[in-house]
Amino acid sequence: QADVDAGQIANTATVRGASSGGTQAQASATRTVTLDRTATLAFTKTATPGNVPTAGGVVTYAFRLQNTGSTTLTGVSIADPRTGVSALAYTWPGTAGTLAPGQVVTATATYTATTADVAAGSIVNTATATATAPTGAISRTATATVLAVPDPLPDAATTPQGVPVVVDVLANDGPAATGATLSRAQLSATPALVGGAAAPVPASPTSGSVTCVASGTDRGRCTYRSVDGFTGVDVFDYALQSAAGTWNVRVTITVTPVNRTAVARADRLVATIGGPDVMIDPRANDTDVDGDALAITGATPPAALPGSFSCSAVLCMYRPPTTGTAGSTAIAYAITDRPGAPGTGIAATSTITVYLDPAPLVPRGFTHRDDAALGASTGTWTSTTTVTAATASCVAGRPVTALAWTAVPGATDQLVERRLAGTTPGAWITVARLAGTVTSFSDDRLGESRSYQWRVRPDLQRWLGVASAPSVAVAQPAAVSAVGC
Fold first, then answer.
1. pTM, whole model, 2 decimals?
2. For site-directed labelling of 37, which of 142, 342, 353, 458 has its Cα 20 to 30 A away?
3. Dist. CA 427–CA 141, nearest whole Å
4. Which residue ranges does the record assign to the DUF7507 domain (predicted)?
5. pLDDT tens track for 377-406
6. Which distant-in-sequence residues (6+ apart) come within 8 Å of 367 by Cβ?
């Protein structure tokens, strides 16, 4: 190696001898061979992590310098002039500052990102390696670029019960969203988590469905729809991937309660001319999907009604006439929910039909006997129906399940009810009231990745029929892309 470093090999040979007469003689010859030699360096610089989202983030630089020439290099050093870069920590293969051909020296340094770096969007840094070869000084440079892109931000929205809400999830994400891929599906095995997002698969809503637009002018607009009857907090995540990193970001939706109109159903009462007063509570067959209390707010008997009719908040009374003609008369009545919070309830109306029967005949010339053993019964409405296999699919990017059932002769309405399936099923809730002749329905107010059961209950006037057996549980599809299910 010393010959190569010197650049030549000089060699002298000497020959000696003696004549027959004893005379000594010698001669010398010298030859110098010039050697080819090179003085080169291979220099790289890398930075970890590739993105520093906030001021105060620490960047670690790694340097690698190799003697790729054929001569020994001395005075080897690496300089990184950027203000704030720490002193380099070297790992030498031998003597510090010296590299034989093929030898490698490594070094590390750290740098703490500043507010100015984040504002600039990147940290660009160049280091210089220098060394002295037998032929003179040599140098190389290497540059590393670290992005300074802030993490995207979580989103939140509030919507009334049953009202879809659109959230532009990219609007507050800044540079992180520029050129990034948006998806509801997993984009990385190790995403950065923002706002409590799930990993590695973004979370789907449990009480609704969501559809997100991945491209075009509406890119980033996600539409959330809650299931019927849901109030409270639901969440979903979206994934974002760019050169700066990959994130799963949480979106929180708050669904506020909205009062819904109660269902007032028709009633009937039977009285006798000259007979006793008849009481009826028309609320008995009325329902409120929100479970609110109901109160009677009034009744409007027509002028032609025989007798008198009046109502309190909880009961109506009909006093039949002592004389008159038998017949029937419809009386409009009104109810409201939330009677304890005046001004917040919603009115609903229906009718009470009064059937006035003739006075009984007065016995003449014979006697009668009361028999306490005789009884009366309203009977039982036993007609029912059967829900066939429900089919889950996707419509407009959200779950939907198609239902079908057999017709029930005589039914005036069909109530479609749904509950969450599972070891402990949820409560049955009414999702639709349909005409008695309808035998199918598509339910699209469902939560992703949840399992439901349905049943159908026929209705004959005020007599509510026997509900069908619950359908087989049907699992809803989950989101697999930015466009929903």
1. 0.59
2. 142
3. 71
4. 40-137
5. 444 445 556 777 777 787 766 788 888 988
6. none
Structure tokens at 162: 């049953």
What stretch(es) of the chain map to CATH 2.60.40.10?
267-357, 391-475
Contact 258, 162 (CB under 8 A): yes
What would the CATH number be for the domain defined by 155-256? Answer: 2.60.40
Q: Which of 290, 241, 335 shows the shortest CA–CA distance to 51?
A: 241
CATH code at 267-357: 2.60.40.10
Burial 330-358 (b: 16+ CB within 10 A, else e): ebebbbbbbbeeeeebeebebbbebebee
Within a 10 A sphere around the Cβ of 294, how many other Cβ atoms?
23
Asked if residues 159 and 116 have their Cβ atoms less than 8 Å apart, the reply is: no
Chain-centre distance of CA 286, in angstroms? 37
Q: Give Cβ neighbours of residue 2 (< 8 Å, ≥ 6 apart).
A: none
Full DSSP string of 350-381: EEEEEEEEPPPPPP-SS-----TT--------
Backbone φ and ψ for 324, nearest 5 degrees, come out as 140, -165
pLDDT at 326: 87
CATH 2.60.40.10 applies to domain 391-475: yes
- Whole-number mean pLDDT of the chain? 86
**CA 436 to each of CA 175, 276, 412, 458, 460: distance values in angstroms, whole numbers, following the listed order:** 57, 36, 4, 7, 9
Q: How far apart, in whole angstroms, are the C-alpha atoms of residue 231 and residue 429?
A: 14
Around Cβ 453, how many Cβ atoms within 10 Å?
21
Give the C-alpha separation, 349 to 343, whole Å: 17
Give φ, ψ of 118 to 5 degrees. Answer: -65, -40
Nearest to 287 by CA among 423, 464, 114: 464
Contacts of 277 (CB under 8 A, 6+ apart): 317, 318, 319, 320
> Across the strands, what pairs with 338?
none
